[in-house]
Amino acid sequence: MSNNSKQTNWGQFIPLVTVFFFWGFVAASNDILIPVFKKAFNLTQTESMLVQICFYVAYTIGSLIYMLVSKGLKKDLINKIGYKNGLIVGLLISAAGTLLFYPAANTGSFILMISGLFTVGLGFSLQQIAANPLALEIGPPETGSQRLTMAGGINNLGTTIGPLIVSFAIFGSATTANTEASIESVKIPYLILGAAFVLVALMLKFSSLPSVTENNDEENQISETSNHRSSAFQYPQLLLGMIAIFVYVGVEVSTASNLPAYMEKDLGFETKDIAPYISLYWASLMIGRWTGAVEAFDIKANIKKLLRFLAPYLAFGVFLLVNAIAKHDLSHFYIYSLIIIVMIICDIISKGNPARILLIFSSAGIIALLIGMFTTGMVSVYAFTSVGLFCSTLWPCIFAVALNGLGKHTNQGSSFLIMMIMGGGIISLIQGYVADFTNIHFSYIIGVICFAYLVFYAIRVSSILKAQGIDLDKISKENGH
What we know:
It is a single chain. By secondary structure, the protein is mostly helical. The chain is built from 23 helices and no strands. Helix 3 runs antiparallel to helix 20 (about 425-435) and helix 15 packs parallel to helix 17 (about 375-390). The longest helix is centred in the first third of the chain and has 31 residues, at about 10-40. The radius of gyration is 21 Å and the shape is globular. Residues about 1-5, about 215-225 and about 475-480 have low confidence and may be disordered.
């Protein structure tokens, strides 16, 4: 896959993004499982976070296994088997995990349930290691982070639909009076999901994605300034980027994971009525990513400007549509269209520079969390859900700057970054513990600390890359920002 290609290979990109959809579907559905398991198995808020711990720590275990296998082979595993096969094997591992939900639901076993999620996460780790660098590879390097943003937008179509489908499967329609969840009702949606994983694996098998990785030309891969470094660990942008991924996934996941408990305890919501708000949180990520993805298209500047305003509202329209189909009252959500304007302004100010996007959006995330903490009622709910808007473009920005200049160590660097997805479980657990110790409202201080580190990383990484001869502003300008 040559980096010299002037255009994105959409024939390869479209089958690739289907896996991004499933990561989102499962990750957001966990937020519905947490309150259900909490009631069914009588768990504390900290214990209920085991759902997230098992799912997200699986990414770390998966990455460690990947590294050990690569060491044993004396060659990077993805470089050996190819991106396509890496994705297919990952999907089949995840499909095996969904099968555990059947005996788990029949026996009412919490351990089996979270073991199933752990196995799904293991498969996702291999998919992530292959898919993220691949999205950067199949087109011009200048628009790599925007392609990842677009893939993320598809991911969030999954996160928007996931909670609604799983909630419907467990509770029935929003208009029924069924407030008690049956553990048995969890198995069917997850078995269907397993079948979908197998179907996508088959689709990838016959897709035009390359079977073998072609990025082993060391002369092209190692930049002049890299001094032929022997390991990805020798790049400070990657080391600091690993912590950035840890806290970013942490704040993104824990903000949503603790929202149901906040809405139940402090605002008196029923569990079955929370799904639309969880859906709105994940839809906010979709809204932000659809906006950021506009840059990946090779179109005229004027049309791009127009799309920057249209794309977020199109994504918001998708959220409203799926909630209308689910027969939820939409009147609470129209006000949110005003909050989206703030995100559009942040996007315009950032001018496509990934480090600047990271700085501006992380700062906005801090403000959103502080507003949520110091207000009550629906104002606080919308402040907390708007964190999704400001998390939306952070993953591709961190990925793009952390892997910038790594050359032949890119896949190794990618596996280190994927390992840090465990932050989603660990930060959720820490926030759950703070919530049990103080209260849920105050526990969002953990998210503020996470965003503060991302502000630091955004400032620091620009000077690190400049020292290696990489100017992010120059790259952004060349890309027509």
